[in-house]
Specification:
Layout (H helix, E strand, L loop, with lengths): L5 H5 L9 H9 L3 E4 L11 H8 L15 H13 L9 E4 L1 H13 L5 E6 L4 H8 L3 E6 L11 H5 L6 E7 L11 H14 L2 E5 L24 E6 L12 E5 L2 H13 L5 H12 L3 H23 L15 E5 L6 H10 L6 E4 L1 E2 L13 E5 L4 H29 L1
Parallel strand pairs: 1-10, 3-4, 3-5, 5-6, 6-7
Antiparallel strand pairs: 2-8, 7-8, 9-12, 11-12
The structure holds pyridoxal-5'-phosphate (PLP).
Pyridoxal-5'-phosphate binds next to α5.
Length: 408
């Protein structure tokens, strides 16, 4: 039989989804699973978005224009203007989620064999798309002790080679909740200008901030030729299934290239674009986003407090997004621990699923004692999920001591 491609063979399953079959099996055994492994919020999508979908009168569900439905593009331009950023329709393309936007950004800025700098831990699909496009990921390691902020620019500069084409990051970030300060964004911009690099800033969580303001790459002056914004409505509108995002750049060569990529994938979903236009044209849209932000803010505080009850757990209060990265001293292989929680453990018929940390790093051997928790459930459920996690950690430690004693 002819083999499938080497690239797809090398692709690692997502650390977020790979262990889901174990959760399905646990549920079949009657165990309730708290799903804190995936960034899928439980908050209802705003009514005006859903109304826009319901009231769409369509006779023929035809392809939408490749770069987006004009009404949706206009609504998005107003959304950025409301944020204080003036862009024109030549500078924005509607995409199939932020996922397609960052895939387009990578394909547009990097040739096969080029390198992209990414602060780690990072959203694992970045490395999946880099691999599919023959691009090498060069990690910039960040540390929990620094709240996952960037190391000094001189450290990053040492990683730049003639093959470096771009720096890619999410801010506020998945999986750590770090939001780069204006100074950090400016410093990255200065570095990018000095070495002629693209800056791909993935900002689907920009409105979900709990400490201060999330600086967008579009707010940094002088980066017109370098900056590419990747954006998405999945998180801020709790509309992951809409599959709508966009890519914004003032660099016309970039936009021309992305336009061609849009054409070869035909179009983004029509109903969801109409829903988004209706949402953004509602004078109250900011209020809906603010409601979602406030929910996550309370959840962050509740979860952070609950995590303090776990002996030895190290974590920093996330500044934005809805994830927290936690170091667990009791665990040296968090994937094994997640499997234990799903296969072997329950507390009164309940268990908690989190994402193992190593899959968020490109550097080998890092993150094995870390996990990512997504605070996508109501507060009472988060508190209970942490109770279950804590009991699971105790049971895991006891089991490991017993195994070690037997082996000894
Ligand atoms: C940082 C980041 N970028 C992009 C995405 C993908 O989002 P979308 O649903 O818009 O494709 C996610 C999803 O979790 C994410 O966390």
């Amino acid at each position: 039989m002819r083999s499938v491609s080497e690239r797809t063979k090398a692709l690692k399953g997502s650390p977020i989804r790979r262990l889901v079959p174990l959760a399905v099996a646990a549920r079949k055994r009657g165990i309730h699973v708290y799903h804190l492994n995936i960034g899928q919020p439980d908050i209802p999508t705003p009514e005006s978005f859903m109304q826009g979908v319901r009231q769409a009168e369509i006779d023929v569900l035809c392809y939408a224009p490749a770069s987006g439905i004009p009404e949706t593009i206009q609504a998005l331009l107003k959304f950025y203007a409301d944020m204080g950023v003036e862009i024109t329709e030549n500078e924005l393309r509607v995409t199939i989620g932020g996922s397609e936007a960052f895939a387009f950004a990578l394909q547009t800025t990097c040739n096969p064999g080029d390198e992209v700098l990414i602060p780690e831990p990072f959203y694992p699909n970045y490395s999946g798309h880099a691999l599919m496009n023959g691009i090498k990921v060069v990690p910039i390691t960040t540390r929990i002790e620094d709240g996952f902020h960037l190391p000094p620019m001189e450290e990053i500069e040492k990683l730049i080679t003639p093959k470096t084409a771009a720096i890619l990051f999410s801010t506020p970030g998945n999986p750590t909740g770090v939001a780069y300060t204006r100074e950090e964004m400016q410093a990255v911009g200065t570095l990018a200008k000095k070495h002629n690099l693209f800056v791909i800033s993935d900002e689907p969580y920009r409105e979900l901030m709990y400490e201060g303001h999330a600086t967008s790459v579009l707010e940094i002056p002088g980066l017109e030729e370098h900056a590419i914004l990747v954006d998405s409505i999945s998180k801020r509108l709790s509309a992951c299934g809409a599959r709508i995002g966009c890519v914004v750049s003032r660099n016309q060569d970039v936009m021309t290239a992305i336009n061609k990529l849009c054409m070869i994938r035909l179009s983004a979903p029509t109903f969801a674009q109409l829903g988004l236009a209706n949402f953004l044209n509602d004078p109250n849209y900011k209020h809906d986003i603010e409601n979602i932000r406030q929910k996550f803010h309370s959840r962050r505080d509740t979860l952070f407090e609950a995590l303090q009850t776990i002996p030895g757990a190290v974590c920093r209060k996330p500044e934005g997004a809805f994830y927290i990265f936690v170091k667990l001293p009791q665990v040296d292989d968090s994937e094994e621990f997640v499997k234990f929680m799903l296969n072997e453990f329950n507390l009164d018929g309940e268990t908690t699923m989190v994402a193992p940390g190593a899959g968020f790093y490109a550097s080998p051997g890092v993150g094995h004692n870390e996990i990512r928790i997504a605070y996508v459930l109501e507060e009472a459920k988060l508190v209970r999920a942490v109770e279950v996690l804590k009991a699971g950690l105790e049971a895991y430690s006891t089991l490991r001591e017993e195994v070690a004693a037997t082996a000894g």
